Amino acid sequence: MDEDMARRFSALPSVEKLLRCESLEPLQDAHGRTAVLDAIRTALSQARAAIRVGDWKVEDTDAYLRARCEASLEARSQPALKPIFNLTGTVLHTNLGRAPLPDSAVRALVAAAGACNVEYDLATGERGRRESHIEELLVALTGAQAATVVNNNAAAVVLALNTLAVDRETIVSRGELVEIGGAFRIPDIMAISGSRLVEVGTTNRAHARDYRNAINADTALVMRVHTSNYEIRGFTKSVPEKVLAELAHAQDLPLLLDLGSGSLIDLAQYGLPHEPTPAESLTAGADIVTFSGDKLLGGPQAGLIVGRKALIERLNRNPLKRALRVDKLTMAALGAVLKLYGRPEHLIRELPGLRLLARSADEIKALAFKMLPIARQALPASWEVSIESCDSQVGSGSLPVDRLPSWRLSIASTRADKHEGDGLEDMARAFRYLPVPIIGRIQNGALKLDLRCLEDEPLFIEQLSALRRAGG
Ligand SMILES: *Cc1c(COP(=O)(O)O)cnc(C)c1O
Predict the structure, then answer these.
(1) How far apart are CA 23 and CA 45, in angstroms?
(2) How many domains does the chain have?
(3) pTM attached to this predicted model
(4) Which residue among 159, 292, 398, 399 has the greatest number of ligand 1 atoms within 8 angstroms of its CB, and so is best to mutate?
(5) Is 300 in the pocket of ligand 1 (CB under 6 A)?
């Protein structure tokens, strides 16, 4: 070790000294002694590592370490989940929280955060049912005999399969053995539910006789899965729901339908492509229909189950139901969202998911023109901002082939010296590190910000200013 290095090591203060210093001592009250100690030890060990490799140029060691500790304690005390701007162009982005909740749902879940009547009947003063808060609404909106709810649609499918077909056979068309977002795959879900999968038909075609031939004494269930995230085109055939229901009922078997997203209303009235509704499936004869709460429905994560009363009661009695139950916050938010559907004329204004999906390209274009000069001003001169038309997508496997015309900002480096890297990744990171992170998509050498989901303009402009202050 040379003399210089030795001097630097000996200049490092002790843990005790830092712990008792004027700026860190009071922080023990806010963050706890352990957290402060942790921050100090981390800062010191990073300093030692830097000194060891000769990468330490700090003059005032004490002040520097104090500042490091303060910054890391501040970062630690931030909630882990933060609001972000989803400008990826995928509206219902699973990694970014899917559907944004309407204000009424946010108020409802805040109201339920403390003690609340989640399983308590205020009229009788006795124990109530958790589902009672949403069952009537779901029944009214879908025309089902009964309804229940679990943690997500994957859980709804597992519960239905386990209740209706454990140790017995479930028939599914080969063309419907979907994988959704990696972890949800029909064959795996079937296995974990304890039901035996019987595949019928081929990838592109299934006939009614394929189903009929597969039914035997061990069959418990006929299942249809809405192929929500892909489309099979060309020489294809699938059995209409109505025929499938008749065929199952002729053998006293129920028809289970995993609808995936499922919309409670006809989206065509908002200029969006039609997505099958639970009401349509029930009318066609399905006995149980499951769908997600946080896809096109626009609510919190939940698995909604509607259908025949006797079957829903069996699902509710399955001990698995207890393990998959939703919490009071979800119940509160879901109830509020379902209530919005009772006033469909206000839906487009009050339900953010629908509002964003139905937003017109003209409106987004005007917004892009408005943001263009602001973005230009916020970025260093070596960056060029332009606007271009693009397509947003619905996301979460809903309406996979349909694109929604939109507009975006495109941010690219003007530096000719591309072999040094154009700094695009760093720029994207700078956007992600903003107080309210802005998440875009890198494509064709540019950072693309699809403005479809940009609603809070002042907050967005504030982030751009923060970007400028940070030096881009
Ligand atoms: C999205 C989807 C699921 C999974 O729903 P989650 O609510 O995400 O659990 C299951 N089946 C289909 C057809 C889907 O589209």
Answers:
(1) 20
(2) 3
(3) 0.90
(4) 292
(5) no
- Rounded CA separation 197/221 (Å): 10
Tokens representing 384 are 């060029």
**Residue 169 CA: distances (Å) to CA of 144, 165, 228, 240:** 26, 6, 24, 21
Domain with residue 363: its CATH number is 3.90.1150.110
Nearest to 410 by CA among 379, 455, 437: 379
In this predicted model, what pLDDT tens digit does every residue of 400-455 receive, in sequence order? 667 899 999 999 998 866 555 678 999 999 999 999 999 999 999 999 999 999 99
Handedness of CA 155, 161, 163, 164 (dihedral sign): positive
Q: Which residue's CA is minimally distant from atom 3 of ligand 1? A: 260
197 lines ligand 1 (CB under 6 A): no
Q: Parallel, antiparallel, or unpaired for β 85-86 and 438-439?
A: parallel
SS3 category, 268: helix
Domain extent, residue 8, equals 3-76
Between the CA of 295 and the centroid of ligand 1 the distance, in Å, is 9
Indicate if ligand 1 lies below 6 Å from the C-beta of 330: no
Give yes or no for residue 228 CB within 6 A of ligand 1. yes
- Boundary residue ending a domain (350, 379, 397): 350
CATH number of residue 138's parent domain: 3.40.640.10
- Kindly calculate the radius of gyration of the chain based on its CA atoms and give it in whole angstroms: 28
Does residue 152 have its Cβ closer than 6 Å to ligand 1?
Answer: yes
